[in-house]
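Dear Dr. H.,

I hope your travels went smoothly. While you were away I took the liberty of generating a structure for the chain from your last submission, since the lab meeting agenda had it listed for discussion. I wanted you to have the full record in hand beforehand rather than looking at slides cold. The sequence, exactly as received, is reproduced here:
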Amino acid sequence: MTHLMDSLGVGCTHCHNSRYFPSWEQPAKTYAFTMLQMSEHIQATYKESMNNQDPSCYLCHRNQVRPPGAVQSEVFLPEPLRSSYKP
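The corresponding predicted structure, in token form, is as follows:
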């Protein structure tokens, strides 16, 4: 989790409810999970193209919640993949 905080320049409460960490009520937690799934997909699909380096959150985010140059309208954000999450 420290890597996520450092890469996005945020603290724990950006994604977590400080009174109940397992809660999914914070939308950012769902999007973070979606982004972790995206990283896994990139690693599985493009690892050779990336000289066998693993993608990291910092690769795009550069210490910002919204990656520089990212679409600013929430209309274009992906639907959360929460329904596919099974702890």
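Two observations you may find useful: The helical segments are 2-8, 27-46, 57-61. The CA atoms of residues 61 and 67 lie 4 Å apart.

With kind regards,
E. W.
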